[in-house]
Automatic annotation (TrEMBL):
This is RWD domain-containing protein. CDD domains: RWDD2_C. InterPro entries: Phi-like (IPR017359), RWD_dom (IPR006575), RWDD2A-B_C (IPR059181), UBQ-conjugating_enzyme/RWD (IPR016135). Gene3D superfamilies: Ubiquitin Conjugating Enzyme. PROSITE patterns: RWD. SUPFAM superfamilies: UBC-like. Residues 22-125 form the RWD domain. It comes from the Eukaryota.
């Protein structure tokens, strides 16, 4: 029975990989200047890693797992910012991106759909952002805790998959955090930076990376 299950999983991964190659080939023709292949899979188990530069301040990164995408899940998607993008804008745009990814239909290739939807969202956001960000900044300015530093240590049963470890690195870069991870049994992640960004980091790991953290002591 186990051998049969493994055979089905291998067939699904092979089909996913073929669909990913076809999708990436199409994306390269659609985004010849913007698309960069960060990691090209060398084996059937390796992930595809892509980055699409939308403008000088915003880039989307995609991790395509052959085990799940596109047959049974969407891609992992991360948003990177230029240094001049305000924290409040980052928070709002990350929320918009989560909504876009969550709306995608399972079982279909959706990288281009996510890029197109987020580009439209970014255009709309930039058209209205100056006033919104200023109001948010005025509301947040009395709260000095937002400028405080925060450190967290996250423990999990294990941390082995390279795709998950790369996702942690990508998310920490996106949020401007420092730190390191220790793979193995158990796994752990140490992160530090601006308090709001660190809390967002923990929340994102719980939501998008299968609720790994089992114990999260906060250290100021």
């Amino acid at each position: 029975m186990a051998e049969q299950d493994n055979g089905i999983a291998d067939a699904t991964a092979a089909e996913n990989r073929e669909r990913q190659f076809n999708e990436v080939t199409l994306l390269e023709s659609m985004y010849p200047e913007e698309l960069q292949i960060i990691k090209h899979p060398k084996s059937q188990d390796d992930d595809f890693e892509l980055e699409v530069r939308l403008d000088p301040g915003h880039s989307l990164s995609f991790i395509l797992s052959p085990k799940t995408y596109p047959a049974s899940s969407g891609p992992q998607v991360f948003l990177s910012f230029g240094s001049d993008v305000p924290n409040e804008s980052r928070r709002q745009l990350r929320a918009h991106l989560r909504d876009i990814v969550d709306r995608q239909e399972l079982g279909i290739e959706c990288v281009d759909l996510i890029i197109g939807d987020f580009r439209q969202t970014l255009d709309d956001f930039n058209a209205s952002a100056p006033d919104d960000v200023q109001r948010a900044g005025e509301q947040a300015s009395p709260n000095a805790s937002q400028n405080q530093a925060l450190r967290v240590v996250l423990w999990m049963h294990h941390l082995l998959a390279t795709s998950k470890r790369r996702a942690i690195v990508q998310l920490s870069k996106e949020l401007g955090l420092g730190g390191f991870s220790k793979p193995g049994y158990p796994g752990s992640v140490f992160a530090e930076g601006e308090a709001t960004a660190v809390r967002t980091f923990v929340d994102e790991l719980k939501v998008h990376l299968l609720c790994w953290p089992q114990h999260v002591p906060m250290l100021t």
